[in-house]
Specification:
This protein is an alpha/beta fold. The protein is built from nine helices and eleven strands. The strands form two sheets. A seven-stranded mixed sheet has the order 5-4-3-2-1-10-11. Strands 6-7-9-8 form a four-stranded antiparallel sheet. Strand 6 and strand 7 form a beta hairpin. The protein is elongated, with a radius of gyration of 20 Å.
């Protein structure tokens, strides 16, 4: 177990990109040192959307031993004091039958869609979601840019999402169109609030959350707005540090 902070019943949860690091960058030595000091004051947890290897690249290869709580993929993979608390995958959650319904329907739907170009990898299976790309993820940069422009005009992705919403209304899925060429399909509630199930309300008096994508549609929105958290919108690691200094020291 890690040493107890001064205020163990105050929990501070942090997004990674834009909050502890510049987007997709690594944490600075100054910010890293500050976070270490913070662990002496309050209970600290990391809640990232990326997977654990990516988090280790950005924060530290020993991230699991630096902070008491660690959540990657929004909490689908959860650690406490360096020990695995739980791991959830979309296939165990949905079951093989429902998963194949989605996959088979997707392949059939895309077989009837004609685009300026089509390449390969139309469905990417990930731990917590299916990523569906009408053009296929194997397209080149130029083809990706061209599809984005074509999709803006013809609404290929929005139309497919609407069709899936009615086809799979019974499965309780969320559809999120992001990036240039694809959209994500995942169970409702698999946003960052998922991590809260590992944080018993009776263990904490205050739960603070720090994130930058806190507007509706951003991946920090649901946890920022959640009744159990005190949300703090930040625009940089410097601002995160400033608010923490005011609140916890």
């Amino acid at each position: 177990r890690m040493s107890q902070p001064k205020n163990p019943r105050t929990l501070a949860l942090f997004d990674v990109d834009g909050t502890l690091t510049v987007p997709r960058g690594e944490i600075t030595s100054e910010m890293s040192a500050f976070m270490k000091t913070l662990t002496g004051q309050v209970t600290v947890g990391i809640v990232g959307g990326s997977d654990l290897p990516k988090q280790k690249e950005q924060l530290s290869s020993s991230v699991l031993s630096l902070y008491p709580y660690n959540f990657s993929q929004n909490g689908l993979v959860a650690y406490k004091d360096g020990e695995l608390l739980g791991e959830t995958t979309i296939n165990t959650f949905l079951g093989e039958e429902a998963l194949q319904r989605i996959i088979n329907w997707t392949l059939a739907y895309l077989s009837k869609v004609t685009l300026p170009v089509k390449r390969g990898t139309f469905i990417e299976f990930r731990t917590g979601m299916l990523n569906i790309s009408p053009i296929g993820r194997n397209c080149s940069r130029a083809e990706r840019d061209a599809f984005e422009a074509y999709d803006k005009e013809h609404g290929v992705r929005p139309a497919m999402v609407e069709a899936m919403k009615s086809e799979f209304a019974d499965l309780g899925l969320t559809f999120s169109i992001g990036g240039q060429i694809s959209f994500d399909v995942f169970p409702q509630g698999w946003d960052k609030t998922y991590c809260l199930k590992y944080l018993p309300a009776e263990d904490f008096d205050e739960v603070h959350f720090f994130g930058d994508k806190t507007d509706k549609g951003g991946n920090d929105y649901e946890i920022y707005e959640h009744e159990r958290t005190v949300g703090h919108k930040v625009t940089s690691p410097d601002e995160t540090r400033k608010i923490c200094e005011e609140l916890f020291f």
